[in-house]
Specification:
Oligomer: single chain
Largest sheet: none
Order of helices and strands: HHHHH
Number of helices: 5
Structural class: mainly alpha
Number of domains: 1
Shape: flat
Radius of gyration: 15 Å
Distance between the termini: 34 Å
Length: 89
């Protein structure tokens, strides 16, 4: 069960990073010259399908340990957002 929770959070985190991370602007712009990739990176829902396949492959290979840092990063962002919201109340 925990593997699937890790996978779900990892897919969301990887998708968000690939679609919106400023540090990836140059590589994303370079690969987006190919129409398929431009459309893919413009649509988080579309990209998440491919990220899910990638993460599923990681699970099949029993390499989910590589997902842990990504999940820790994303979960800490969620906790920070919740804490910030509650602090403003």
């Amino acid at each position: 069960m925990i593997r699937w929770v890790l996978a779900i959070i990892a897919v969301e985190a990887l998708t968000e990073l690939l679609v919106n991370a400023e540090i990836l602007d140059k590589p994303r712009n370079a690969i987006s010259k190919i129409r398929f990739f431009k459309e893919l990176f413009d649509c988080g829902y579309c990209l998440s399908v491919w990220m899910a396949l990638f993460v599923f492959g990681i699970l099949l290979l029993k390499l989910e340990i590589v997902l842990v840092p990504i999940v820790i990063h994303r979960t800490s962002n969620y906790v920070h957002s919740i804490y910030s919201f509650l602090r403003r109340k």
